[in-house]
Write a structure and sequence with these properties.
Belongs to the Fur family. The chain has six helices and five strands. The protein is of the alpha+beta class. The longest helix is centred in the middle third of the chain and has 13 residues.
């Protein structure tokens, strides 16, 4: 088990969240997979080891992780929500053909946030930006 998963499980325990085998497996899968899976993909990956687990169990646990600030929910268009255990500031490139999502980092956009605050009088707490294109596989 990775240190990241151990730290996350410890944080859940501190917050009074009981660690079930399913919860542990879902969290581990999310943190080990950088593929931004859907709840259905998580379910299909874990179902052989947890035949009594339902898709609802996956959704309920993802909700717990969202509320604890341990994962982000990514919604793009009409596609299913995807989940990202990397909560650091980063951006996504999304393939318009197959839906693959890749992470990338770039310098902070805090100057743009500041300008948004100045021009709107809003208090900006963050931003979301994604790029769309065609992945290498789909360019084929």
């Amino acid at each position: 088990m990775t240190t990241r998963v151990q730290d996350a499980l410890a944080q859940l325990k501190i917050n009074g969240v009981r660690i079930t085998p399913q919860r542990h497996a879902i969290l581990s899968y999310l943190m080990d997979s950088m593929g931004h899976p859907t709840a259905d993909e998580i379910y299909r990956a874990l179902e052989p080891n947890f035949p009594s687990m339902s898709v609802a169990t996956v959704y309920n646990n993802l909700k717990v992780f969202l509320e604890a600030g341990m994962v982000r929910e990514l919604t793009y268009g009409d596609n299913s929500s995807r989940f990202d255990a990397d909560i650091s500031d980063h951006y996504h490139v999304i393939c318009q053909s197959c839906g693959t999502i890749k992470d990338f980092a770039c310098e902070s956009l805090t100057e743009i946030e500041r300008k948004a605050e100045e021009s709107t009088s809003f208090k900006v707490f963050g931003h979301r930006m994604e790029f769309y294109g065609i992945c290498n596989h789909c360019q084929g």
